[in-house]
Amino acid sequence: MSANSVLLDFSLDPTRISDEVSRKDIVKQCKEHLEKYLPGLKITYDMLTDDGYLCMLTAPGAIVTTIRFFNQGLITINIEYYRAECEAPKVSFEQIKSLENVLRLKLEAKRSKHLPPIKRGSNVDVYLTSSDERVIEYDIDKVLYDKRSDFQKIQIVHSKSLGNMLVLDELQNIAEADLIYTETLMRRGVENYKDKEICILGGGDGALLYELLKESPKHVLMLEIDELVMQACNKYMNSICGDVLERRKAENYEIIVGDCMVYLSKYIKEKRKFDYVFGDLTDIPISDTPTGEIWEFIRSILESSFQVLKPGGKFMTHGNGVSCPESLQMYEEQLAKLSPKVSFTKCSAFVPSFMEEWVFYQVQREMDGAVNV
């Protein structure tokens, strides 16, 4: 069940918008062709606005249609109605396409566009955002888990094409189809983890730990703050995490529930060292400047991680989408400010559930021989 909004727009010569006779003719044309799909359509209200003109129409079935004129030559048509779960759409997608094509010709529009119905207020939310804040519509058909922890909103949803997906605070994190994400983060086939000591910061979905254990490390320590995330993934995402979130501890790994910064401070005092530290935490934020709470957290993680790395050790992390070059550049500027100096390599991979190319970083002290690429 959801409110469906059908959106169409047309670009015309702006002089036709300001002329009252022309404007009335355009409304007449729009109403005439809308009535073919919305019988009983009537004009209920209209008004001049500071930037043009607005006309509201209604039809039986609680269908509300607005036609809005903008002085710049843009006309938008919005059709909105409530659709029950088993109810057929009041205007099919084929009818929307046909309506656009007819009106484009009748209105002599320079350009036109239609969109499939935008579904709002549904029990199953199918819209998530890309790294640069574009809307992506997923083929989500059910919600398997939906709770709020002390730290975040946790959802596990099912996608017909991607399998089960972990969504945190309305942002897609990982899906069953995303092995490439984990393998690129760990640089499988490039890095050698055999007999290495590894620390994972975050990683509550268990996928990174599960894949690292296949590489015969000496020991992997995972620090995850959110118990509910691990419980949810253990139940609904075990195709990517196996039983590691169930067992929590074995000879070659241990999961500790707690704040990773607290434990990093503890390990610094104890002079405990690792061959690899993975930052599987927050993404690099989109912002105008590298300021604010998240950027401070990122800087603290970087500084603390290098204090627990062995000589030659590496800090491995995910960045953001390639469509966010400004944010990636700001992150690299933060790397350049670290002392002792560090160098980095980076790579990218297309992550299915992100529907975009994602950037990953491998950082080590400059004296250890990394080269910026």
Keywords, separated by commas or semicolons:
single chain, 373 residues, alpha+beta, 8-stranded mixed sheet, 6-stranded antiparallel sheet, 11 helices, 20 strands, 28% helix
Notes on the protein architecture:
The chain is α+β, with helices and mostly antiparallel strands and 373 residues long. α2 packs antiparallel against α3 and α9 packs parallel to α10. The model has no long low-confidence stretch (mean pLDDT 92).
Write the layout of secondary structure elements.
Layout: E1 2-11, H1 15-18, H2 20-34, E2 42-49, E3 52-59, E4 63-70, E5 74-83, H3 93-106, E6 111-120, E7 127-129, E8 135-137, E9 140-148, E10 153-159, E11 163-168, E12 171-175, H4 179-186, E13 197-202, H5 207-212, E14 219-224, H6 227-236, H7 238-241, H8 244-247, E15 249-250, E16 253-257, H9 260-270, E17 274-280, H10 293-307, E18 309-321, H11 325-336, E19 342-351, E20 356-365
Parallel strand pairs: 13-14, 13-17, 14-16, 17-18
Antiparallel strand pairs: 1-5, 1-6, 2-3, 3-4, 4-5, 7-8, 9-10, 10-11, 11-12, 15-16, 18-20, 19-20
Helix pairs in contact: 2-3, 9-10
